[in-house]
Amino acid sequence: MRNKTAAAIVIGNEILSGKVVDSNAAFLARELRALGVSLERIVIVPDDLGVIGETVRDHAAGFDVVFTSGGVGPTHDDITMAGIAGGLGRELVHHPLLVEKLRAFTKGELTPPKLKMAEVPAGAELIFDGTLPFPVVRVDNIYVLPGIPELFCEKFMAIRSRFAVDPFFVRVVYSRAPESAIAAHLDATLAAFPELLLGSYPKLCEPEYQVRVTLESKDETYVNCALDHLVSCLPPESIVRTE
Amino acid sequence: MRNKTAAAIVIGNEILSGKVVDSNAAFLARELRALGVSLERIVIVPDDLGVIGETVRDHAAGFDVVFTSGGVGPTHDDITMAGIAGGLGRELVHHPLLVEKLRAFTKGELTPPKLKMAEVPAGAELIFDGTLPFPVVRVDNIYVLPGIPELFCEKFMAIRSRFAVDPFFVRVVYSRAPESAIAAHLDATLAAFPELLLGSYPKLCEPEYQVRVTLESKDETYVNCALDHLVSCLPPESIVRTE
Fold this sequence. Notes:
By secondary structure, the first copy, chain A, is α/β, with parallel strands linked by helices. Helix content of chain A is 39%, strand content 25%.
């Protein structure tokens, strides 16, 4: 079975100007990995209608599923819905169910900034999974999520189960020897286990080990055999421990 | 004058799979902001030759300057140089100066994993600014930086001044005291000099100092007065030196 692929598009000048550090992409990366979905791209773009539209359109065509983060509030710079509509050549419309939700929610007059939050690209679906006070907007394979980390997380968790494919099994070796000293053994292991996903991460400030090596596969037996192979290659004194 | 634009390309499966949280893009965003350079895109791509090549090529054509992070070590998954070479239609060659540096550095035989670290796209320039033990590789408008955060930071800081547009004047204080002990003095300085850009960068592995404090302004006299103010606040024994 082909892997299900995903891309994340984070929208916001505040991140590109260094005023806010994005945490939504890293959260999504961990969640998708656990679900067995292969996150293959993260793109951070400015609050620019054309750039948002083009980036979302291209990634929606290239990946199975796209998540956007940010730009869905009531202010002038919240232009994600308009950007997506433009990119897909759709009209931007007020979704009647969202207008109704907003009216009940605000208990007052729907001012233009509030009404703006009912705008979606034509053809959007509202997802009311879980106990969300406000639905997730889906446009084709694009899931539009808010930028505020707590809300991003809450909304993703409510729709999370839709994306489960099959999970990876991960094993780890911590090496006391530097990366250059174990590189040949990593290569040998990869030659013997070509389907293995092998990662090697040097750590500078860690007294216990110099390199964290990760071995991954969707086949548990395969990854265990690869671990045994690598451990048998490495000088025993270089191994701090395995996990 | 048109803004100078920049893009950051972060390379690494470990980030897309959620095993490592990237911090280099956020660091770069803050630094470029201070320099007056407009960071307009951050893209995180997998360890894939074709994707790296295409992404770097497209962004090098679309922005004034491109920074890459990661994929320049000795292991099988370090393919940034090969990716850039492929994307630009250049050969991948051993740079004689890098081979020489590596030979001096390793004091031993240059094994293939070590020699791999001398590979660059044909036509690359080596930048020996500052006191770098190992140069920065530049290919056209592309600056190739390592993924390990301490090294990414060290190398960027060594070449930082090249990118100043409407430059800031920067003064630095190295503090032997931890950040928590000097925070109140930083706040007091900022209260007295509200236009000052003040940065505080703790360093974990540095025997000489614990915090590098940067003071910045486009007005040289202003930043010098602010430095005098901060130095007069700090306990004298906490100051290693100023720059």
